[in-house]
Amino acid sequence: MTANVAIVIPVGPGDYAWRGLLPQLASADSDEIILSMADGDAVFTDALTSNLRVIHSEAGRARQLNAGAHAARAQWLWFLHADSCVGVEAIQAMQAFVTNNEPAIGYFDLRFLGDGPRWMAINSFGAFLRSRLLGLPFGDQGLLMPRRVFESLGGFDDAVGKGEDHALIWRARAQGVPLRALGASIRTSARKYAEHGWWRTTWQHLRMTRAQALRFSRLAHSQRAGDRQ
User: Fold this and answer.
1) How far is residue 208's CA from residue 3's CA, in Å, rounded to a whole number?
2) CA–CA distance, 130 with 136 (Å, rounded to integer)
3) Among 2, 41, 177, 183, which is most exposed with the fewest C-beta within 10 angstroms?
4) Which of 165, 131, 178 lies closest to 61, judged by CA?
């Protein structure tokens, strides 16, 4: 019996990382896997599976995530990045969370592949502290939620620019939606740290996260106040 889950994967122009992700999701027993593509790239027929659907959307991660969620039929939504690597433990944790049917947002711990600098363990620990202690998991941690929670939050805000995942989490916090660490990891590429330098890239992320947190926290609470009026 398949889990009532739709796995939504936004795909940017010229991005083929999803081809490596699909075989890893074979044991997820999901109702559907939705590739939300931002251009007209062809999907080779040998990559298709019975539960795979391909849709096309306006470019922009928030728009593509929303389009995939709206096209999905399942009552649970699991948002994954195309370059994520998902192991058996993560799939089992996903299935257990769905079975519990809690109106909450689940997330995974973040690990990095071996394609970046040796310092990436520090970034993994930083993501652990940010999500576990500060309550700010990001989209590359595989956000998992019931459709009713997604809809109550209004989906991803395509007006905020970068950080649509960050903005969603602040809205969830403002509305009292619980955030649950699922006790398993998802791995992602560290190529950009290798290409642009570990210190420079890490520092830029820290600065951007701080600026977004100040902006999105104010926006989320103002939206919440407006809803109460």
Assistant:
1) 36
2) 6
3) 2
4) 165
Question: DSSP 3-state assignment of 153?
Answer: coil
What is the tens place of the pLDDT at every residue in 9-63?
Answer: 999 888 888 989 999 998 888 889 999 998 766 555 455 567 899 999 888 999 9
Q: Is there a contact between 31 and 50 (Cβ–Cβ < 8 Å)?
A: no
- Most confident region among 36-40, 107-111, 212-216 by mean pLDDT: 107-111
User: Which residues, listed in sequence order, are joined to residue 85 by a DSSP beta bridge?
Assistant: 187
Q: Are 37 and 8 in contact (CB under 8 A)?
A: no
* Composition of the chain by helix, strand, coil, percent to 5: 45, 20, 30
CA-to-CA dists, residue 51 to 20, 67, 84, 187, 194, angstroms: 16, 17, 19, 23, 35
Q: Does domain 3-228 have CATH number 3.40.50.300?
A: no
Place of tokens 């210190």: 199
Q: pLDDT digits over 135-178, tens only?
A: 999 999 999 999 999 999 999 999 988 899 999 999 999 999 99
Phi, psi (degrees; rounded to nearest 5) at 192: -65, -30
* Residue 26 burial (CB count, 10 A): 12
Identity (one letter) of the amino acid at 121?
A
Q: In what order do the strands lie in the sheet with 76-79?
A: 52-56, 30-37, 3-11, 76-79, 144-146, 105-112, 179-188, 85-86
